[in-house]
Amino acid sequence: MKAKRTKRLLHSRRKVQVAERTTYIGNDNHLHLNFASFDEVKKEGQKSALNKIRRKTIKTELEQYQHNNSKHIRLKPYYDAHIPVHWIGIVSDVTIPNKFDKLEGSILIDKIATEDHEELFDYHIWLNVTAIKMLVKKNNQKLSVGDYIEGISYVVPYESSGISKYGLGATVILNCGIFTGKVKAETLISNYERGDDWVLDMENSTAGQEARDKYEIGEFNPDSVEELAGHVSCTYQPSRYNKFQERLINDEKIVNAAPLPLVSKALQTYTAEVQSVFAKRIFQDDEITFEPTISLNKVINEHGRLISKSTIIPYPEQLAAIGLVPEDSKINFKAIGSQKHEQLFEIQAATIDDNIKDEMKMIPQDAEALAGYLLYIDNRPDNIQTKSGQKCLEKFFDWARENDIIPSSLRTTDKAWDSTATYTGAELAQYLKFPVSWIDNLVWQDMLIPIDDQVNIEDMKFAGTEIDKLHEIQQANTEFLAKEVNRRYHFYRAKDIAEIVDLSVYQVAGMIVNTGYKSFNKYYGENVLKIIKNKVERKPIMQHSRTKDLLNRFGTNRSGVVVKREIPKDKSIKILQTTEPEEVATPTVAQKPTVEQVTEVIVSKAEVGEEKTEPEKIETSEVEETAEVVQATEPAEVTPEADLEPEQVVEDKHDSNSRLVLITQSGKYYTTQFANEEKAEEFMCDSLLPGELNRFIKAQDVKTGKVRHISVRAILEWSME
Q1: CA of 402: how far to CAs of 371, 406, 410, 713, in Å?
Q2: Residue 530: helix, strand or coil by DSSP?
Q3: How far lies 720's CA from each of 454, 555, 630, 685, 715, in Å?
Q4: Nearest Cα to 28, choosing from 253, 239, 200, 241?
């Protein structure tokens, strides 16, 4: 526009300015939406009715005070989160560019507010015309002072007089005009006739027109305004109303008053996304304490204003009673804000969507137990090893035991593993990347408990919770967690066993090596502890001496197995007993039991009435190998029946010159050392290790004649029947 024409227009505008130029009665606290009712529009016509409302807005709603301390701080969270702000305000003034000191025009927007117009972002803000990328409502738009203007903008920082502030960056104008409605403002009319009372005429560029066409068919989102390459072409016209400087009231109290706070001191409702839940470390009086805390993203108040990119709040009691809030879920709560620290306090009435409640895991409601839960999940040794951390963990473990919860199942160690499913030994070995024999090793240590009595370890079934136990062992990276594993599952490290049996760790380690059992993450099962204790105490490894006790422990639901009896018995044989036998020397086990020769019955000739005061050893060459057998372990002391007289002779109807010899790996013993045949059988059963019950030997099926493998356990069960 030429300078001479601009000057002439300015003079003409001043002549037609009306007296209301000094009668502004605006309310600085809120944005009020004036509107023309449908009846007024119908009665007076749209042009007259809407222009009347626009002039009324100029008199009653435009800003009257300048606020020197304003930094537009309520726009800061949008800049921090890099998300656009949706705003609405009133066109207060337009600056016209010139070739000397103002190369770009700007729009002054008064009372820029939230989308619901209920809360101000600030009292006024400038929008540079060059930042406008597109007009959404139509390709051409005129703007008048007093019009309501609505847009979406990205926030940019800038400096003014050495002070950092925040302003509007890339922008799309959604609409601009005057509201109409029946009883409240409903529709913003942009294309009403303004006559010659306008200050800015904007038109989309080619790129802007293309973007608007895509928007109309749903292919363009105004939120992606930053990516837009368009701009608007502008025509300016001087305003016939007072400039904003001319209508300001000089009130020092208001001019120098504090700016609008980022958060309100009043109790308000907020909505936020859950980022994470953790135990916050607090230093207080030179001591460390932990507080259950929720980290939140995009905290929005009840008017839709973003008050914080992220913040933290104490875990609300109301949510603890429901469970652990999932990440990315939305929660609602009431809180009081701190203007000094820009944080929220006194959290109240926290709620979460009903459709999420079913997904929430149960957690302790006690604050310290919940802190321990979160410390365990986080698994940071520097927190766990503190005095307060261990106290919180103790309360958490107590809660877990009371509720029959395996702590390791709470950690998301492997989402592919289903704790509620059932897995075979082969699948378990594949998951753990172990040989199947190692699974067998863990079973006989009682570290893994099968849910069936399958003999073949590959087919043996395990509950998914068994792997949770192993996960917990793997995650026990502190002494405190190691003791919890010991207390909960009765798994032991070599040092734990050494403390129990009062030996050095070196001695215990050597004894464990001799058992042949392997550790899992330096832990052994309860059976290994029993073996070591009984080695130290010189007692039988198995506490139950009868075959029935063995079968009760390891399952007796096997049926339909027929085997050929390996050890023939002739109950008509009377055993010659001339004197009380001495104690049998206790053999030792050098290694983990392996399959050895089957106990064989040999009839050897001896002098009638020959007295034996100690067991005789038979040379191995006298024994003929037949089949596989379970290795005997340390036998118990054999005590003859007390009611047998030393000189009593038991008649042998078959052959008075014969006796039975029991041959095992640990030694060969005469039946004359036992009170009767049942005592001899009891001794053999006591000598069995748990691990040998699943050893296989060859047996012939009497029905089919086929040779098949059968376990020692099956033979014992058959003998019981």
Answers
A1: 17, 11, 15, 37
A2: helix
A3: 19, 13, 17, 12, 9
A4: 253
Flag whether 39 is in a domain. Answer: yes
**Integer Cα distance of 186 and 175 in angstroms:** 13
Same domain, 13 and 30: yes
List the beta bridge partners of residue 83: none
pLDDT at 586: 35
pTM: 0.60
CA–CA separation, 615 and 659 (whole Å): 13
Q: Are residues 679 and 702 in the same domain?
A: yes
Sheet holding 232-236, edge to edge: 140-143, 200-204, 232-236
Asked whether residue 686 falls in the same domain as residue 565, the answer is yes
Alpha helix stretches (DSSP H) within 299-424: 317-322, 354-357, 367-378, 381-384, 387-402
Torsion of CA 470, 475, 480, 484, to 10 degrees: -20
189: phi then psi, degrees, rounded to nearest 5: -90, 120
Q: Are 194 and 142 in contact (CB under 8 A)?
A: yes
Residue 5 has pLDDT above 80, yes or no: no
Q: Say how many domains are in the chain.
A: 4
Counting residues of the chain whose pLDDT is more than 70, the rounded percentage is 68
The verdict on 589 and 607 lying in the same domain is yes
- Give me the domain span that covers residue 94: 3-245
Residues 222 and 284 in one domain: no
Query: Could you tell me which residues come within 8 angstroms of residue 673 by beta carbon, excluding any fewer than 6 positions away?
Result: 581, 584, 612, 615, 638
- C-alpha 378/C-alpha 281 separation (Å) is 12
Distance CA 437, CA 290 (A): 44
